[in-house]
């Protein structure tokens, strides 16, 4: 059976859109970037750790396959995680304003015999935002719990001047890469899971 090692409603929604049947696993993985760790290495490591921790929860099921993912917003080698509060979210949006940042989504899939990973990298350009734009977006509360203080699938779309890459990857789970990776593990959409 396929398990999603994530509490993210967006990842669940995207995996469901692909037609997969899956269970979800509750994990508490610390997400702290090492001092000498590149931003890309950090995202890949966290995705692997989530998948590995999830597999430990379901090891009694010999057919278990676990998907773990991580998505981060990166500007000038700074990783923009989830904002602590509205003040932190506003500071992030001011830094992103009028600039192009990178969004990296890593997806790791593991079972008892193997593991594999894919990475999606996108470039997102924000329009130049004034205080009114930022305050209006903050009032939606969409920023809460989202890397970089925005959700591309919601009202933040009006803040984004250009996207080069994967919309679903910026949302939290690159659908094309995820489907291809799951096929390598013999998991097809809509199929009955063992």
UniProtKB/TrEMBL annotation:
Molecular-function annotations in GO: dTTP diphosphatase activity; UTP diphosphatase activity
SUPFAM superfamilies (UniProt xref): ITPase-like
Family named by the database record: Belongs to the Maf family. YhdE subfamily.
Keywords: Cytoplasm, Hydrolase, Nucleotide metabolism
Primary role: Nucleoside triphosphate pyrophosphatase that hydrolyzes dTTP and UTP. May have a dual role in cell division arrest and in preventing the incorporation of modified nucleotides into cellular nucleic acids.
Names of required cofactors: a divalent metal cation
CC terms in the record's Gene Ontology section: cytoplasm
Name of the protein this chain belongs to: dTTP/UTP pyrophosphatase
Reactions listed under catalytic activity: dTTP + H2O = dTMP + diphosphate + H(+); UTP + H2O = UMP + diphosphate + H(+)
Annotated site (Important for substrate specificity): 10, 71, 153
One Pfam match: Maf
Enzyme active site: 70 (proton acceptor)
Compartments where found: Cytoplasm
Gene3D superfamilies assigned: 3.90.950.10
EC number(s) recorded for this UniProt protein: 3.6.1.9
Keyword Nucleus: no
GO BP term, example: nucleotide metabolic process
């Amino acid at each position: 059976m396929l398990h999603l090692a994530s509490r993210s409603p967006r990842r669940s929604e995207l995996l469901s859109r692909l037609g997969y049947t899956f269970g979800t696993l509750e994990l508490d993985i610390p997400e702290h970037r090492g001092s000498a760790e590149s931003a890309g290495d950090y995202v890949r490591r966290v995705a692997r750790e989530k998948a590995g921790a999830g597999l430990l929860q379901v090891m009694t099921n010999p057919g278990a396959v676990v998907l773990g993912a991580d998505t981060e917003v990166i500007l000038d080698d700074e990783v923009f995680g989830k904002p602590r509060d509205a003040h932190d979210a506003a500071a992030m949006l001011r830094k992103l304003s009028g600039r192009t940042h990178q969004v990296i989504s890593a997806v790791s899939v593991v079972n008892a015999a193997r593991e594999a990973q894919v990475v999606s990298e996108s470039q997102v350009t924000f329009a130049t935002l004034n205080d009114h734009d930022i305050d209006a977006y903050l009032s939606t509360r969409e920023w809460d719990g989202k890397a970089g203080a925005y959700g591309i699938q919601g009202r933040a779309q009006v803040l984004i001047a250009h996207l080069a890459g994967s919309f679903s990857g910026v949302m939290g789970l690159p659908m094309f890469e995820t489907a291809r990776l799951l096929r390598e593990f013999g998991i097809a959409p809509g199929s009955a899971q063992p």
